Amino acid sequence: MLRLALAGARAIVDMSYSRHFLDFQGSAIPRTMQKLVVTRLSPNLREAVTLRRDCPVPLPGDGDLLVRNRFIGVNASDINVSAGRYDPSLKIPFDIGFEGVGEVVALGLSASAKYTVGQAVAYIAPGSFAEYTVVPATKATAVPSVNPKYLTLLVSGTTAYISLTELGDLSEGKKVLVTAAAGGTGQFAVQLAKKAKCHVIGTCSSDEKAAFLKSLGCDRTINYNVENVGAVLKQEYPKGVDVVYESVGGAMFGLAVNALAVKGRLIIIGFLSGYQTPTGLLPVEAETLPAKLLRKSASVHGFFLNHYPSKFSKAMDQLLRMCASGDLVCEVELGDRSAEGRFTGLESVFRAVDYLYMRKNTGKIVVELPHSVNNKL
Known about the structure:
Blueprint: H1 2-20, E1 32-38, H2 45-48, E2 49-56, E3 64-73, H3 78-82, E4 94-95, E5 99-107, E6 120-124, E7 132-136, E8 140-142, H4 148-168, E9 175-178, H5 186-195, E10 199-204, H6 207-215, E11 220-223, H7 229-236, E12 241-246, H8 251-258, E13 260-268, H9 289-296, E14 299-302, H10 309-324, E15 332-333, H11 349-357, E16 364-368
Parallel strand pairs: 9-10, 9-12, 10-11, 12-13, 13-14, 15-16
Antiparallel strand pairs: 1-2, 1-4, 3-5, 3-7, 3-16, 5-6, 6-8
Helix pairs in contact: 4-5, 4-10
Family: Belongs to the zinc-containing alcohol dehydrogenase family. Quinone oxidoreductase subfamily.
Enzyme class: oxidoreductase
InterPro entries: ADH-like_C, ADH-like_N, ER, GroES-like_sf, NAD(P)-bd_dom_sf, Quin_OxRdtase/zeta-crystal_CS, Zn-ADH-like_protein
């Protein structure tokens, strides 16, 4: 009886404390919200995910923030999540999305030591494809304002920064090849390599993207719909490239391996060309890979951001400083040029993912969640 009484008392105290912080400047946080939920495992997001309305707005625990999402990030790997590839132990239904920017509208006691209601934060946490998300305070980063440019840094920027710092061994004069260079993370790999005084080659799918890459300082752009990537690399870089930042996979991976210089390094940060297939992979020439690497003393490294938690804060702080000083371009793609217009509302996440896989985007794809009519924040 005593144990039950204490457990009940603690629940009441926690709920009371949370409710104390639920009202900021007269804002009305609703009891229910909309969110996207994986209801069937499939790499086809439209088949896998359901937009659910009338879901309870969650309350934060002691070390948590409740964030009202204003912008959410779309990533190629969202369909790996909907296919159940990252965590096979997850049972449907489960929430989807893992990065957002918004305001803190409620928080727990421990979290209040560092954050306040009304503060703008960016975060990486499961369930960002929702109007409200409970975020562990340790997974959030305070940002100057609710601006989508900060969303570009969370996964895309830190992936480029940490992978190139830890695995790239960049130095002046090295030749760096960035595939999908005009995309969400490619844009940062180009800029960081240029800041290390490297010669940068970027592949892309259009002349418009090539112009964007040139504006970032890219030394050689290759529009693969116009030029043959393998032929260009062989002719113009006969001694090979020193570092490859590779996110495409399939045939592009093979071209990148062939282009490696002696002691060259290839960093795999993804292989999006295969994500929509049943296995998530496209075939590569694995049989000849050991011989190719041996002949050049070259190496292939995989990079997954989740394996570098101790490096994240430093990377994010550095990227925020560069962003604040105007030393970093954070290109945001909100879908204004898409056939159906801007990506607004949770229902547009499906369009945004389609847009990404059609390779239409320049920069990081972001979906805006508009203000609720009843919310004054």
